[in-house]
Amino acid sequence: MDNAFSLIDFILIAFAAMAAGFVNAVAGGGTLISFPALIGVGVSPVAANVTNTVALVPGYLGATFAQLKDLSGQGRRLRLLLPAGVLGGVAGGALLLNTGERLFSFLVPYLILLAAFLLAIQDWVRAWVARRTEATGGSTDEAWSIGPVFLASIYGGYFGAGLSVIILAVLGLVLDDTLTRLNGLKQIIAFAVNVAAAIFFLFSGQVVWSAALVMAAGSVIGGLLGGRLARFVQPRTLRMVVVTIAVIVAVAYWMRR
Question: What angle do CA 223, 92, 253 make, to 5 degrees?
Fold first, then answer.
């Protein structure tokens, strides 16, 4: 699938992907920038979501590899939860492709607002997980986390923005461990969900390849810049900027309909 884009369109989506990669590396929520940009240049909502998922996967690599050290000793959890994440991502992707354009277009502003809300409460969720892991002394059967992670992963394959917040909350509720280790586990599960959905979408005929290639390059550059400049940026401030942009985009989308 492809669209006819002008040079200005390519520049816009390239910078949007770069911004998304930067934001994902520093604070999370980059989809709330790149997805609306694709709609803004005329890509249909379903194709925009599919293309955005495929394009941003390379930008997640850096953050995922940076946290591999936090997965030490979590082999059993990975064996339990990665398949759940992959299956949930594919299920969410299939659900998206079977959602008509009209219905998904109706859902878009609500999905954007939901993702903005999840991003806004991310610090609260992290603080809650930290408090709970410090206060809990017992152990919970890790198999109980499979179902909640699978359900969260369906959302990840369907839309995805804010997925990390949901997974971290689920892991913090079910598993007893430090925030650092749960955060590493969250990162690899979210990455698996996105990769599974992206691979599934490759064969959907909905990927706008000219946009996806430009955005993939932009997201990688943005991710590298985010990694280098993260110490100079306040994640909470950047997060609130993205939340504000998302609310404005959702309102504008409502007014346009």
Answer: 70
